Amino acid sequence: MKRITDLLGIQYPIFQGAMAHIARYPLVSAVSEAGGLGIIAAGGLSGEELREQIRETQKRTEKPFAVNLMLQMETISEQVEVLITEGVKIVTTGAGTPRPYMESLKQAGIKVFPVVPSVKLAKKMEELGADGVIAEGMEAGGHIGETTTMALIPQVTQAVTIPVIAAGGIGDGRGMAAAFALGARGVQLGTVFLTATECPIHDNYQQAILQADDTATTVIRKAKGGALRGLKNQLTEEHTNDAFSLAALERAADAGEIQQGMIMTGQIAGLLTQVKPAKTLIEEIFTEAELISKSIKID
Ligand SMILES: Cc1cc2nc3c(=O)[nH]c(=O)nc-3n(C[C@H](O)[C@H](O)[C@H](O)COP(=O)(O)O)c2cc1C
């Protein structure tokens, strides 16, 4: 199997997870420029807004970056057209099946990596012609499935022949080495990149993550299905439908509303104590993972 770095033309097998409203060009270009894979979150953007994000990213880096499509968005067809015409080469997908867009994406030479929470969906995506899958465990921040990363990754890597990227709960080189030990060929990190210097979120949001401990997050569930992980606060306590809205995330990310905003973050927040440039985060994690992979002893 080709290495993920060779397949995508990146230096490190580290993806910056798409984060709605947050993963915009300042963070995306910093991650890609540092040798990881920056991913623009298209969720909530019109076609023209996505075009602007792509162009601003291209101005800042010539290295590969991706766009994450949330497939249930109304603007999805427009977004697909825009990313093809703007020359985007890698797409990740969430919230639904990429089936209706697969042919046009593949015809445009785009590599497609759907995010999946289960073996069943991973297999479906392989059948559809996906180039790899991002298997995300329920430790992750944001919308989550039911299975933990530790249990999900070995089951997905056993079930498919395409490369598997592990996501959910990876916070340092130890987590990255563990993911590779379970058969993953790359990792996707969201929560870690919320602590990047270049991450365009309110200081209150970033500080809340740095101060979080191992039990600081909770999962809120919709009656009709769908679960969301974020920091425990008044909003998650009240558990209204509003907590699931993009507006609730915006209140946290833009206005720094710590109690009434949705502070989406994963369980690994408890490990993170410092804001660092994306380049430092990536290099430290990769170097530590390499070191561990050479020195691990089972005795
Ligand atoms: C604030 C936030 C917003 C997110 N938004 C999206 C999104 O729009 N699309 C998506 O596919 N995943 C989204 N995710 C999931 C991340 O891309 C990533 O897979 C996840 O954060 C990995 O787990 P970790 O947080 O433990 O590192 C989001 C995560 C966070 C923390």
From TrEMBL:
InterPro entries: Aldolase_TIM, NMO. Keywords: Flavoprotein, FMN, Monooxygenase, Oxidoreductase. The keyword Oxidoreductase applies. Coiled coil: none annotated. It holds the Pfam family NMO. SUPFAM superfamilies: Inosine monophosphate dehydrogenase (IMPDH) (SSF51412). PANTHER family: 2-NITROPROPANE DIOXYGENASE (PTHR32332), 2-NITROPROPANE DIOXYGENASE-LIKE PROTEIN (PTHR32332:SF20). This is Probable nitronate monooxygenase.
